[in-house]
Structure formats: structure tokens, C-alpha cells
Design goal:
This protein is α+β, with helices and mostly antiparallel strands and about 400 residues long. The chain is built from 12 helices and 16 strands. The protein has 2 domains: about 110 residues, no CATH class; about 260 residues, Roll (Carbonic Anhydrase II). The structure holds zinc ion (ZN).
Length: about 400
């Protein structure tokens, strides 16, 4: 009688027990803060029957994914139904509990394996560019557009360049190449989203009379650095240009191979970018295209002072006359663009000399040993006005 009754009641008990378990599991899936705590405890109490590895998952789940409620509700129904059907076959209650627990654990582990994006916040590293990167990125512009912390004196940055490793690696090819720059770091998103990016293919400019650029270049001391993206020459202060009544101080110049800018589709062997900054932090870059021809004495001076190691400045024992870098005919194209390296900040005044300078095959060969290709692809002109100086 007693046994019979017990047998009859067993499914009822089992069902009640399974319901309770399912409910508590359901609560553990993050339906309210309070539910999470007992659920986690429940997980611990059942530890011997659960795989040990599942324990942290239970806790983690209790804390996370409140918005996954729907899917969890759906999966919560599954063990419930199965438990009920097993209860009808009079499985002993303790075993039944184990089965339910196992089922719940299974469902969870499956869900764990599912490609759900977990919002585990990574520890936020402070955003810092190393020195070489700052220099390579023609960093002073970031004062205006990016709000990054930078040395206020341009020559502070130029003079004291001692690079100490890279926070973010960017490159000209591969996974961290130009197509990915904008996604490497929030500060780089202009590379992807900007509408006034450089370089461009210079064509269909309007023919106008442009005031000549007044070059105030004089013999200067310089330091050469291979910053991992290009060879850069940091020039001592006192050199500058005057354009439209504004004076821009020369900070540095560096090279790309092949030329980043094109003129009516034509790309040149190399280009030198002379980077200037005015008192308000606005940048003006003069581009001197380089074609194969006779050797260039100033470039030879730079190559002579190439440091043996990357990110190490070598100070030249001699001075350079920067006027040598300029072509004799100084008409130019001008347009508004951006840095051609991350962070691709905009608001840069570009002046591209129409006439190229020349350098020898050997001199081009020296650079290509270091950088076979370090040119950003052409960007959309997006209807920008280009002036073609006559
Ligand atoms: Zn450049």
C-alpha cells in the first residue's frame, strides 16, 4: 500500500522537483538580479553532479546576457518537457534530479559554444602613440582634430625622438593594411570614414593663378630616423613657408615609394613630403615628386645618415640646404586633404609641385631596400576643388 502509493506519487514529486529546478535555472539565466545569486549557489550545491568546468559558467551566465532572455526561456522549456516524460517512467527522484541537472548543464554548454558575442569589457589601455608613430603620423595635426596629447612644440617632438615600441601596428599590406586602418583603433576611424582623405589622383583641377609658395629654407642641421613606416628627416627649427599670408614651420620630411599622389593617373617613383605646421597647429604639406634621373645631392646626404637601427635617430654632422629639394619650376596643385597615415586626420593643406625632382636608380634602390612599398592607395576626391596653378 505504502509502496504503491509512493510509486504513484513519485512522478508527481519528480515533476514538482523538476519544475522547481527548471524554475531556478530559468531564474539563473538572468531574469533579475536577485535570482542570480541563489542560482549560482544552486550550481555550487550540485557541484559533484555537474562537471566542475560548468560552475564558473553558471556564475558567469547569471551575471551576463539579460537580453538573451528569450532564447533562454525557449531552452528552459526543453529540460522541463524531458524531465516530465522521464518522470512518467518512474525513475528514482535522485537520479531524475541528476538527469535534469545534466540536461540543464548540457543546454548551457551548448549555448556557451554558440557564437554569441560576449560583452566582456577588455581592460582599457590608455591611448598613446609612441614617438615614432607620432612623427610618422605627422602628429601635430591631432591637436586640432583628434584631441590627442602631443608635444606642443613641434621641434620638441622632432628633437627628442626615441621610440619605445608600438601600441598599434599598422602596415601597408596584409591584415593591418590601409583597408583596415580605420578599424584598428577608434582614433583611426577617419581613415575609414573621412571624406577628404589623401592621397588623390590629381586631375580636373581648375586652372588659376596661384601665389608662389614663399620658401624660407636655409642650411640646417638634421636627424634621420627610420620609424618603421618611412625614412624621416627631422629638421632643426628656422625653416618655413609662407602661403596666403600664413607662415608654416617645417617640421620634417619623409618619403614614400612609389609616390602616393598621382597626376592624371601617373604615379612617380617616389615622393618627398615636407610637413609644415602653423602657429594654430594647422598642417601644410609640400609634395615633391621624384622620378628616375640624375642623382640628388640632398637625398644622398639623407641616405648617408641612415641609422643602422629602426627608431633610432642619427644626427648629421653636416647641414643640408633644403632648397636643393625643390624643383626649379615651382608651380603647384593645391587641395585640402588629410594625413596619408593613421590617424588620417583631415584639414591638411596640400601643395603638390607640378614638376618632379630626380634621383638616381641607386638612390631609389636604397630606399626600396628598406621600403618596397609604403604608399597609401588613392582616395576618392569626393568633389573636392583642386586648383591647378599656372
Ligand atoms: Zn607622407
Amino acid at each position: 500500500m505504502y509502496l504503491t502509493l509512493s510509486d504513484r506519487l513519485a512522478p508527481v514529486f519528480a515533476l514538482a522537483a523538476s519544475l522547481a529546478l527548471v524554475m531556478s535555472a530559468y531564474a539563473a539565466d538572468g531574469h533579475g538580479e536577485r535570482a542570480s545569486e541563489p542560482a549560482a549557489e544552486h550550481g555550487e550545491a550540485k557541484e559533484p553532479r555537474l562537471k566542475p568546468s560548468l560552475k564558473p559558467d553558471l556564475k558567469a551566465e547569471a551575471k551576463e546576457g539579460r537580453d538573451e532572455g528569450r532564447s533562454k526561456q525557449a531552452s528552459g522549456a526543453q529540460p522541463k518537457a524531458e524531465a516530465a516524460s522521464e518522470a512518467r517512467t518512474s525513475v528514482p527522484m535522485s537520479e531524475l534530479r541528476d538527469l535534469i541537472d545534466q540536461k540543464i548543464a548540457e543546454v548551457r554548454s551548448k549555448r556557451e559554444a554558440a557564437p554569441v558575442v560576449r560583452l566582456r569589457p577588455k581592460p582599457r589601455a590608455p591611448v598613446r602613440l609612441d614617438h615614432a608613430e607620432k612623427l610618422a603620423a605627422i602628429s601635430p595635426l591631432m591637436n586640432d582634430t583628434q584631441g590627442a596629447l602631443l608635444p606642443s612644440g613641434a621641434h620638441g617632438s622632432a628633437a627628442g625622438a626615441h621610440a619605445t615600441g608600438h601600441d598599434i601596428h599598422w602596415a601597408y599590406t596584409g591584415a593591418t593594411g590601409p583597408e583596415s586602418w580605420g578599424r584598428l583603433k577608434p582614433e583611426f576611424q577617419q581613415c575609414m570614414l573621412g571624406k577628404r582623405q589623401s592621397p588623390i589622383d590629381i586631375r580636373d583641377g581648375i586652372a588659376v593663378q596661384l601665389d608662389p609658395i614663399q620658401f624660407e629654407y636655409r642650411p640646417s642641421g638634421f636627424r634621420v630616423i627610420d620609424n618603421g613606416h618611412t625614412v624621416q628627416v627631422n629638421v632643426e627649427s628656422g625653416n618655413g613657408i609662407v602661403v596666403q599670408g600664413r607662415r608654416y614651420e617645417l617640421l620634417q620630411f619623409h618619403f614614400h615609394r612609389p609616390s602616393e599622389e598621382r597626376i592624371n593617373g601617373r604615379q612617380f617613383e617616389m615622393v618627398a613630403h615636407l610637413v609644415h605646421k602653423d602657429i594654430d597647429g594647422k598642417l601644410a604639406v609640400v609634395a615633391v615628386l621624384m622620378e628616375n634621373g640624375k642623382g640628388h645631392p640632398l637625398i644622398q646626404q639623407v641616405w648617408n645618415n641612415l641609422p643602422l637601427e629602426k627608431n633610432t635617430e642619427q644626427a648629421s654632422m653636416t647641414q643640408m640646404d633644403l632648397n636643393q629639394l625643390l624643383p626649379e619650376q615651382r608651380q603647384y596643385y593645391t587641395y585640402m586633404g588629410s594625413l596619408t597615415t593613421p590617424p588620417c586626420s583631415e584639414g591638411v593643406l596640400w601643395m603638390v609641385m607640378k614638376n618632379p625632382a630626380s634621383m638616381s636608380r641607386e638612390q631609389i634602390g636604397v630606399f626600396s631596400k628598406l621600403y618596397q612599398m609604403n604608399a597609401r592607395p588613392i582616395q576618392s576626391p569626393s568633389g573636392r576643388l583642386i586648383k591647378d596653378g599656372q
